[in-house]
Amino acid sequence: MLGRVATELLCVQVYVYSIKNPDEIMTGEIPVVKESGPYTFVKTVVNKVLSHSNGLVKFKRYVTYNFSESESCQTCILGNRIWIPNMIYQKFVEAASTTGMRAAATTLLSQTAFLEVEVGEFLFEGYKDPFLDKVCDIPFMNFVCDSILDLPDRIGLFYEANNTNDGVYEIHDGVENPAELGKIASWNGKKTVDQSWWSSENARTIRGTEGMLFPPFLKKSDRIYVFISQLCRSVWLEFQKEIEYEGVPAYRFVLPPEVFDPTAPENEGFCNPTDKKFFDSQNETDDCFPKGLLEISKCQRSQPPIMISLPNFNFASDEVRQSVKGLNSTDPDRDIILVDIEPRLGAVLRAHRRSQVNIEMWKGRDLVFP
C-alpha cells in the first residue's frame, strides 16, 4: 500500500464581496458590500499514502485549485477588481495599540485602510502590498516587520494553499475495531494542535475523522466529529434527517449552532479573549466574540485579523448580522455545513462545507499620531 495515491475531484465556488464605501467607513459608517460570483474552481485532492502498519494509515493530502471560467458566472474573471480591507494596515494598528510600540502609528500615515486588488490576487495568487516596502524602510519599523509581525511577501486569503498539503495525517484503518475506522490518531505527529492556538486542552484535542471517511453503522444519536485543519480545530455534526441521494438512503448530519457559541460548555477554550471591541455583547462573554464567529488568527502565519463564520452570518446574533450591509438574508437550509452518509458503511455520498471568511477592521486603542 506504500505510495498508493487516491485522487478526488471536487467543486469549490467562491463568492467575493467588494467594499462600496471605504471613505465613509473611516468616518464611522457601517460597511456596505457588493457580492459577485461564483468564481468556480476545480479542487483536485490527492491522498498519498506514506505508510500502513499496526492498524494505522499515514498519508499526506495534496490539494490543487484550478479556475474554471466556464463554470463561473458570466462576468467572473480573476482579473476583476474589488475593494478589500488592508490586512497589513490592520497589523500596524494592532502594533501601534501595544505599549512600547506606539511609534508604529507613524506608519499608518503612509498607508490606506482599504486596497483595490484583483480577485485572483485576493484569493490564491496573493497581492503585493503597495506600502509595505516603504513602511518597512522606516527606522525601527524594519525590526517590527521582520521579527514581530512576520509579514509575508504577498497577501491573499488562500495564498500558499494551492499545490500544497496541510500536514501528515495518521488514521485508524478499522481492521481491529470498525468503530475506529477513519478516526485520526495524530496530525503532524501530535494528538493536539499547537498550544498557542487555543487556551484549553479540550479545545486543542484532535477528535474524529478528517471528513472523507466515517465508521460504519452510524446511529442517529451519534455526534460525529471532524477535524478541519483550516479552522484549526475539531467540530461536531448532529443528525438532522433521513434523505435519499441518487436513490440511496442516507443520514444527513449538520453543524449545529452551538459549535460557534462561546458560551457552550463544549467550546471552553475556543475563545481567545481580546481587547479589540467590535460588539457590545463582548462585555457579556469575557471579551469573546459573539455567537456565530470563530477567531482563527492565532493559528495562521502572521496572525492576520481573520474571523470565520457560516455564510451571511448564519446562527449569529442580530448585532453581528447588522454590522455589514449588502449580505444576503440568512437561509438556514443553504448557509450550513452538511454531510450525507450511508449509515451502514459510513460512506460519504455528499458534503457541502460552506463558510465565510471575515476580515476584522479595528480602529485601535489610544492611537497618537506625531
UniProtKB/TrEMBL annotation:
Classification lineage: Eukaryota, Metazoa, Ecdysozoa, Nematoda, Chromadorea
Coiled coil (residue ranges): none
Keyword annotations: Glycoprotein, Membrane, Transmembrane, Transmembrane helix
Protein name, UniProt field: CD36 family protein
Pfam families the UniProt entry points to: CD36
Recorded superkingdom: Eukaryota
Principal location class: membrane
GO molecular function terms listed in the Swiss-Prot or TrEMBL record: scavenger receptor activity
